[in-house]
């Protein structure tokens, strides 16, 4: 899940927070805890956490000063303090959350859920940028649970929807057909490939028009792709398909 560092000058507060964190998120990895802000600065630079749980009022160095010493930083910050007058400054620091002591488990759980959503959003944005940039090289980046696979666009025969996933039907010259499952929706890939020779012919299918071998007439009809696949064309998409082929 997340790698976390906890900073608070009160040992009891650190111990209680760590216990509550492990209770609401057993998979969280608490890298270290620090009572000394000065030691925390060194530890944070070395350990590179995903999220920092940070007290504000501490001797010698407050939480805001600690953050300024770490700028620029990529981790998220969740402030934990007994003083609500710091809320406005916490907002200015772009904190993910501001929790008043004693921190309640329900608030802690909510903050972690917000962190998870933000991370997923950032990852999705990164994947989209990666996919779009790869199109410039006639390849598309296909994210999966294992990583990202770069596939030449001409190798894509058709794409099939499977709930929130997309199945790529691939066939390169001289190689057997294969499938690749991507952890994104068909609609997202349809938008990425809109400028190429791809067309949605069914609510669950997008085809590469350059890989169509034969069209069989019917209510909507069926296309035979050059990898041997048969793809149904919906009645609603038939007109657009025929127009694309000049029929």
TrEMBL record:
<dbReference type="GO" id="GO:0000156">
    <property type="term" value="F:phosphorelay response regulator activity"/>
</dbReference>
<dbReference type="Pfam" id="PF00072">
    <property type="entry name" value="Response_reg"/>
</dbReference>
<dbReference type="GO" id="GO:0003677">
    <property type="term" value="F:DNA binding"/>
</dbReference>
<dbReference type="InterPro" id="IPR011006">
    <property type="entry name" value="CheY-like_superfamily"/>
</dbReference>
<dbReference type="InterPro" id="IPR046947">
    <property type="entry name" value="LytR-like"/>
</dbReference>
<feature type="modified residue" description="4-aspartylphosphate">
    <location>
        <position position="55"/>
    </location>
</feature>
<dbReference type="InterPro" id="IPR007492">
    <property type="entry name" value="LytTR_DNA-bd_dom"/>
</dbReference>
<protein>
    <submittedName>
        <fullName>DNA-binding response regulator</fullName>
    </submittedName>
</protein>
<dbReference type="Pfam" id="PF04397">
    <property type="entry name" value="LytTR"/>
</dbReference>
<feature type="domain" description="Response regulatory">
    <location>
        <begin position="3"/>
        <end position="116"/>
    </location>
</feature>
<keyword id="KW-0238">DNA-binding</keyword>
<dbReference type="InterPro" id="IPR001789">
    <property type="entry name" value="Sig_transdc_resp-reg_receiver"/>
</dbReference>
<keyword id="KW-0597">Phosphoprotein</keyword>
<feature type="domain" description="HTH LytTR-type">
    <location>
        <begin position="140"/>
        <end position="247"/>
    </location>
</feature>
């Amino acid at each position: 899940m997340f790698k976390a560092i906890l900073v608070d000058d009160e040992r009891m507060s650190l111990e209680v927070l760590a216990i509550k964190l492990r209770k609401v998120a057993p998979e969280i990895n608490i890298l270290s805890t620090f009572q000394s802000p000065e030691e925390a600065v060194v530890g944070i630079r070395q350990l590179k956490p995903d999220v920092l749980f940070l007290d504000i009022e501490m001797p010698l160095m407050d939480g805001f000063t600690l953050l300024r010493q770490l700028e620029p930083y990529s981790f998220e910050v969740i402030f934990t303090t007994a003083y609500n007058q710091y809320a406005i400054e916490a907002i200015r620091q772009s904190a993910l959350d501001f929790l008043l002591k004693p921190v309640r488990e329900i608030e802690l759980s909510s903050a972690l859920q917000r962190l998870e959503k933000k991370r997923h959003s950032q990852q999705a944005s990164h994947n989209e940028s990666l996919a779009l940039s790869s199109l410039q090289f006639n390849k598309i980046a296909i994210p999966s649970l294992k990583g990202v696979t770069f596939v030449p666009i001409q190798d894509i025969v058709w794409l099939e929807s499977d709930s929130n996933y997309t199945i790529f039907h691939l066939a390169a010259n001289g190689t057997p057909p294969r499938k690749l499952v991507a952890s994104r929706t068909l609609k997202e890939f349809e938008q990425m490939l809109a400028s190429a020779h791809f067309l949605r012919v069914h609510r669950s299918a997008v085809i590469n028009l350059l890989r169509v071998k034969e069209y069989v007439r019917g209510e909507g009809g069926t296309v035979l792709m050059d990898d041997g696949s048969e793809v149904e064309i919906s009645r609603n998409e038939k007109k657009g398909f025929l127009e694309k082929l000049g029929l």
